[in-house]
Amino acid sequence: MAHSNHMIYQVAGIAAVSLLTACSTQQQDVNLQEVGVSHELARFRKEHFGQVRYNLFFSIPESRQEPVRGKAVIQLSLKEKLPLIIDFRGDASQVASVLLNGGEVPYEVKNEHIIIPAERSVVGENKVSVEFTPADQSLNRRDEFLYTLLVPDRARTAFPCFDQPDMKSLFTLTLEVPEAWQAVTNGAIEKTDTLSVPGRKLISFRETEPLSTYLFAFTAGKFIRETYTRDGREISLYHRETDPKKVAQCPEIASEVFDALTWLEDYTAILYPFAKYDLIILPGFQFGGMEHTGATFYTDRRMFLNENPTLNEQLSRSALIAHETAHMWFGDYVTMQWFDDVWTKEVFANYFASQIVEPLYPGVNHALNFMQDYIPPAYAEDRTAGANPIKQELDNLRNAGLVYGNIIYDKSPVVLEMLIKKMGKESFRKGIQEYLKTYAYGNASWEGLIGILDKYTDDDLSGWSHIWVNEKDMPEIAASIVGNSLVVSQKDPFGRGLNWPQDLTYLIVPKTGEPEEISVS
């Protein structure tokens, strides 16, 4: 179908041209009037844009009052001439220049995109070079350090990119920073060069494994580096802590990371799938942690404990470390295709974290903690008229923050626990191992996972999943004794006629005789 949508504009003295030209009778029209990354645009780029590589450069001044400067070189392949629609949440004044394959091209900055017309692209390899000024909102600039935080859809505030999770790409980063600063990113340091400019240096990093844009990260600043080794594996811990009693906790923190890595390698039968695991403990970090491969961020308030920490504080730190480490396999190695499945990576990280820490704290009633932490808030949310399914529709990534809530964080662990009980732990483990190998360094959906797990059980997991994951609310269950029989019934509160498959156990206490447990499905 030929494009009928034409936009006329003038940029940097280059003659006005038609933005979208007829490319292929197979090509669909892409709506570029919508702000953000629509699902339609994401599907179009995933289908038509080949392997993407980013070569990124940032010049970071010592003073946070001075702007950061950036340059992004984006390589991709095309099988036909298509418009290049690159995400960038900034205005035209933040874009200094755009080159395509070494030459100037007309472009438009509109609706969080830099758009290059189809007639300027070529069949085969294309290289786009953009010089820009990033917004500070995702650089989190502080005195003496900064760090990126790009989840769920903020990578395009920091640099031009294809800001969707299913376009995994290879990243190479170079940073120009003050000479006294250190820097960490997903890849290891390749080399450090002293510049002719006094007090400045250039740090070049190696190319990463395939990553989604929200998992790319870097931090730079005045940090203290601690390095630890176990069984040939080395990790570095970066921090800004000055309290000697808190700094003395670093070996214990590193030991828990090593333990979690070993446990997950054994469970998944897959060695840690990335080049390095470094962690950075940041003052005032917004979340407990963020699972960037090779540069996992943690908040200081959860990692450095007071002199006499409570059992809950110790358990909380252990669970946080295990959670972020589990994400290396569940979220990073295999990533959801779209953020409607963001709950999948979170529920897996929580589950495996609980399995890792449970034997470390034998005096804790973990089953009771699970019930208290998840079931009451899940019930409270799912019983309301405004309840939503675990898996929600998401039309545009700019709305990704709206899918988070009690249903994702509280109901989904209950549902996963139910799934594992249905399958049995060993069958579940075999299915998980196949899932990771099938989608290695790629993207998967919940439905893809269920299709694999279905092979390891006689239960109908697809039907079970549809009710518990894709439908909202919970059934109203009634039980009564009729004669000598236990009668259990359920009702759909919304009158849809749904039936929630689940296993229930009742304790029957007769007036005389021994109590009896009865299970129903």
Lay out the secondary structure.
Layout lengths: L38 H10 L4 E7 L9 E10 L5 E4 L7 E6 L2 E2 L3 E3 L2 E4 L7 E9 L8 E2 L2 E3 L7 H4 L11 E9 L3 E4 L3 E6 L5 E6 L12 E4 L2 E7 L2 E7 L4 H4 L2 H19 L10 E4 L6 E2 L5 E4 H4 L7 H16 L7 E3 L5 H16 L8 H17 L23 H18 L1 H14 L3 E3 L1 H8 L7 H10 L5 E7 L2 E7 L12 E5 L7 E5 L1
Parallel strand pairs: 1-11, 17-18, 18-20, 21-22
Antiparallel strand pairs: 1-2, 2-8, 3-7, 4-5, 4-8, 6-7, 9-10, 10-15, 11-14, 12-15, 13-14, 16-17, 19-20, 23-24, 25-26
Helix pairs in contact: 4-6, 6-7, 7-9, 8-9, 10-11
Can you put this structure into words, describing what you see?
The protein contains 12 helices and 26 strands. By secondary structure, it is an alpha+beta fold. The strands form 7 sheets. It has an 8-stranded mixed sheet with strand order 5-4-8-2-1-11-14-13, with no helix packed on it. Strands 16-17-18-20-19 form a 5-stranded mixed sheet. Strands 9-10-15-12 form a 4-stranded antiparallel sheet, with no helix packed on it. α4 (250-268) packs across α6 (311-326) and α8 (366-382) crosses α9 (406-423). Mean pLDDT is 92; it is low at 1-28.
Low-confidence segments: 1-28
Helices, by number, come to: 12
* Estimated helix fraction: 25-40%
Look at the structure and give the mean pLDDT. 92
Biggest sheet, spatial arrangement of strands: 5-4-8-2-1-11-14-13
Main β-sheet description: 8 strands, mixed
Summarize, please.
With 521 residues, the chain is α+β, with helices and mostly antiparallel strands. The protein has helices spanning 39-48, 155-158, 244-247, 250-268, 300-303, 311-326, 342-357, 366-382, 406-423, 425-438, 446-453, 461-470; strands spanning 53-59, 69-78, 84-87, 95-100, 103-104, 108-110, 113-116, 124-132, 141-142, 145-147, 170-178, 182-185, 189-194, 200-205, 218-221, 224-230, 233-239, 279-282, 289-290, 296-299, 334-336, 442-444, 476-482, 485-491, 504-508, 516-520.
